């Protein structure tokens, strides 16, 4: 539709100069929003060499990735459609454009074929039921305690129940919404373009790469767990979690690897079941790292994703995504790493699409999926219970709705706001499980006097959008070069933004991001210079996926003693992926932490 082809207001931020270019409806998407004409090309004012970055760069005005015109148009359309009753006027926020417009539950009668990564389609649509029940929180009863899967091999009573529950789900007819086959299709339809957004037939519902990631999957597991309990007649039955954040759980849990068990899935990476130590930064190949180093890297990764880089709601939960928005605005920390890496690590690389775990359309066929997500869900609980994290207070998030079939085959409409407290949903996580990453801080690889990036100015990439086919380095200006106080850092986090990452979506993809690193060798995953990764698990959208990556660098700057530097050298190293990846541009911004 016309409105979606209007490019957003583009801000060129970089070490060079800053220009805000406003778009108009006559600009077409083929014209780069970053360099609309030659006269606006920046002039280089920095030089970088071993031992230092010298720069005349202006501090960038920050581009906050507002969707600008495109979004306003869509909101107007939404109101014009007369959906007012649904979206109402409640929850108006300070932003005059931000009319409350949560993504509505899908209309199952509009469900269409989902896209498989290989380009074919698959029918993942659920059975249609006319009556929809609004979810009511259950009466308080005994809590279901979710325990670490690696401990359950030693609990034959529990294990027998779990195996029986999954065996019964497998045995149900494929059109029973409680069957394992249908449960897998839930994920397929919500994640691979099965549902158009209500009111926006050209847009699809997508629950990844955005702030719906945690609540959608919490609800999905809630019903899966209730179905298992119903099938075995034990309402206290709890789904185990794959404790991949602690060394004892950094393997495929033994209970899933017995080929005679209902918990087994034949489409997994055969090299990773022996058991094999998990790589939370996995990017498609097993590298040669000893186990002690790998464990240290994994723990540091957890510390960074959960503690030092989870500085704001946007970084922890993912980017806002409301009715009328294009899918995939940006993933939260844990969704990216290690959630996506673990999908790719688990799936069978011999299958066309890395089935089962390695592609979203098929991931739910493997019982391991639900324990993987149980630990993802546990991270949300740890964030709130242990690390002081809070809920998002935006009504667009709180009022987002999903539909699921419950354990009685009723079709139930749920809202994000009812998912926030696991106790109200009747379950908790075993809190005696050690959390060894809480203090696993990274170390800068270089001593202070060698901390500058060893990239010569001639190696810097200056034109964006750029195709990422090889390693690229770019110099990016910082918004402030005075050392910020801890109060200021508490209020605003410094964030590296990689914008407009565009790719087809059907192939797995990963690139690593380094800041002020050595030009010739990469920092380890437990070192400060490693700023993070972009990682994608194959799932297709109707259009190319275009998303953004935000990485917190406040702590990194302290560790590299770079808080007063005018610019940073950011290096992207492609690790996995076939098709072209386009990078729209970079900026460094101060992002409010609340
Ligand atoms: Cu909906 Cu692990 O993905």
TrEMBL record:
Chief localisation class: plastid
InterPro entries: Di-copper_centre_dom_sf, Polyphenol_oxidase, Polyphenol_oxidase_C, Polyphenol_oxidase_cen, Tyrosinase/Hemocyanin, Tyrosinase_Cu-bd
Cofactor: Cu(2+)
Disulfide-bond pairs as recorded: 111-125, 124-188
Residue ranges of domain Tyrosinase copper-binding in the record: 366-377
Positions of crosslink type 2'-(S-cysteinyl)-histidine (Cys-His): 191-208
Keywords, comma-separated and alphabetical: Copper, Disulfide bond, Metal-binding, Oxidoreductase, Thioether bond, Thylakoid, Transit peptide
Localization, UniProt: Plastid, Chloroplast thylakoid lumen
Binding locations of Cu cation A: 187, 208, 217
Name of this chain's protein: Tyrosinase copper-binding domain-containing protein
One Pfam assignment: PPO1_DWL
Chain positions covered by the region annotation Disordered: 1-22
Protein origin, superkingdom: Eukaryota
Compositional bias of kind Polar residues: 1-16
Family indicated by similarity: Belongs to the tyrosinase family.
Cellular compartments per GO CC: chloroplast thylakoid lumen
Annotated residues for binding of Cu cation B: 339, 343, 373
GO biological process: pigment biosynthetic process
GO MF entry, a single one: metal ion binding
Cofactor binding remark: Binds 2 copper ions per subunit.
């Amino acid at each position: 539709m016309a409105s979606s082809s209007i490019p957003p207001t583009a801000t060129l931020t970089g070490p060079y100069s800053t220009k805000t270019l406003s778009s108009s409806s006559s600009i077409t998407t083929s014209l780069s929003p970053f360099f609309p004409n030659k006269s606006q090309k920046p002039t280089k004012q920095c030089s970088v060499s071993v031992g230092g970055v010298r720069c005349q760069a202006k501090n960038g005005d920050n581009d906050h990735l507002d969707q600008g015109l495109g979004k306003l148009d869509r909101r107007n359309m939404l109101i014009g459609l007369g959906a007012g009753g649904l979206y109402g006027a409640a929850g108006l926020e300070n932003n005059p454009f931000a009319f409350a417009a949560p993504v509505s539950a899908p209309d199952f009668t509009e469900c269409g074929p989902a896209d498989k990564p290989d380009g074919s389609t698959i029918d993942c649509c659920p059975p249609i039921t006319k009556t929809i029940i609004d979810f009511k929180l259950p009466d308080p009863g005994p809590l279901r305690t979710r325990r670490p899967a690696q401990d359950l091999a030693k609990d034959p009573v529990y294990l027998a129940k779990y195996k029986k529950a999954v065996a019964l789900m497998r045995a149900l007819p494929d059109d029973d919404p409680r069957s394992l086959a249908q449960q897998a299709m839930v994920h397929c339809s919500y994640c691979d373009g099965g549902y158009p957004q209500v009111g926006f037939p050209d847009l699809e519902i997508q629950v990844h790469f955005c702030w719906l990631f945690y609540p959608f999957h919490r609800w999905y597991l809630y019903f899966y767990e209730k179905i298992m309990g119903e099938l075995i007649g034990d309402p206290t039955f709890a789904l185990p979690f794959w404790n991949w954040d602690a060394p004892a759980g950094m393997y495929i849990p033994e209970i899933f690897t017995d080929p005679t068990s209902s918990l087994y899935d034949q489409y997994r990476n055969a090299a990773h079941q022996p058991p094999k130590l998990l790589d939370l930064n996995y990017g498609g190949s097993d590298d040669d790292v000893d186990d002690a180093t790998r464990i240290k890297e994994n723990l540091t990764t957890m510390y960074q994703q959960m503690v030092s880089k989870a500085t704001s709601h946007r970084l922890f939960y993912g980017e806002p995504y409301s009715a009328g928005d294009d899918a995939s605005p940006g993933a939260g920390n844990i969704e990216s790493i290690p959630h996506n890496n673990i999908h790719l690590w688990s799936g069978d690389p011999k299958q066309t699409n890395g089935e089962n775990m390695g592609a979203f359309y098929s991931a739910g066929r493997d019982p391991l999926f639900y324990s993987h997500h149980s630990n993802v869900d546990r991270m949300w609980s740890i964030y709130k219970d242990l690390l002081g994290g809070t809920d998002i207070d935006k009504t667009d998030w709180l009022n987002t709705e999903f539909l699921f079939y419950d354990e009685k085959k009723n079709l139930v409409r749920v809202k994000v706001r009812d998912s926030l407290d696991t106790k109200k949903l009747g379950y908790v996580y075993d809190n005696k499980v050690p959390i060894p990453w809480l203090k696993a801080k990274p170390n800068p690889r270089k001593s202070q006097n060698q901390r500058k990036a060893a990239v010569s100015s001639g190696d810097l990439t200056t034109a964006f959008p750029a195709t990422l086919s090889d390693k690229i380095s770019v110099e990016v200006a910082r918004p402030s070069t005075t050392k910020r106080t801890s109060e200021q850092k508490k209020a605003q986090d410094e964030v590296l933004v990689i914008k407009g990452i565009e790719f087809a979506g059907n192939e797995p993809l990963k690139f690593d991001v380094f800041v002020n690193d050595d030009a010739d060798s990469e920092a380890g995953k437990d070192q400060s210079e490693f700023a993070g990764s972009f990682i994608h698990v194959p799932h297709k959208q109707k259009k190319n996926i275009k998303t953004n990556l935000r990485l917190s660098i406040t702590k990194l700057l302290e560790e590299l003693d770079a808080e007063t530097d005018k610019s940073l050298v950011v290096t992207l190293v492609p690790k996995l992926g076939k098709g072209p990846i386009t990078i729209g541009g970079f900026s460094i911004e101060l992002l409010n932490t609340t």
